[in-house]
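Show me any protein, fold above all:
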Amino acid sequence: MPRMLDVSDEVRAEIGDEEADRLLAGENAPGSYDCTSCRTPGDSERERTSTVLFIGDETAVLAFAHATCLPSQVVQVTEEQLLGAVKSISGDSVDLEPEQVVPQQAVLGVTSGLVLITGELHPALVVEPTGPIVRPGSTTVGDDFLPLLIEQGFMPVTELNSLPPVLHGWSVLLAMGQLHAVLQPGPNSGQPVAWWQAHQPLQVTDGWRAAANKHQQVLMFAAPVGSIGRQPREDLLRDALDKAAANGKLVASVLPLAGT
């Protein structure tokens, strides 16, 4: 049965016309899948679905995503990242079925909110992955998310009673009142590159935007998977941040604001 698949020109160029046509005809594409972006179920027979090709040094893995989450595209990753994702599920055997690899691609969830520190409201972003983040090239099972950020200059936080230091070189990109990306220094002190980029620009509240424009900086908190969760209210978000800090599972920095 034909699938409602989007196959971009760059994906088609990598997999070839014959394979692309087979996918569109439904021969090789699954009906149901887990979206590689939001990790919720999708159905390529009923909703527009993007083909996303992860390419390592020697291996390529085809994945699927809701078209509303990601456009069809080619994503370059290291061979270690690609094989590490497989080994985390299947031990030492390497089975490159997309359905097995893709759910292990951790996605960074970003929540915006206002946080009260020293009697003043500050705009904050809270980053929490959907799964453990393993150091590139590592073959061990664990979560290196916080150590990797500490190496970048983020500071461990045990309580939210003062602002952490400014992390120069990093910034939060706000354009036309919407959140677009968190930027980090580029290689060899080049142009900044996206550490996290919204698939679609994220709306922020008027209060958050006003506070960001006032301070010209944004607090960024980061915690391992399962530490914060999706909190529907800012008071609950603050409670979750306090708890993560007390448990030694929170890092933070102040990032300059880029844009308006």
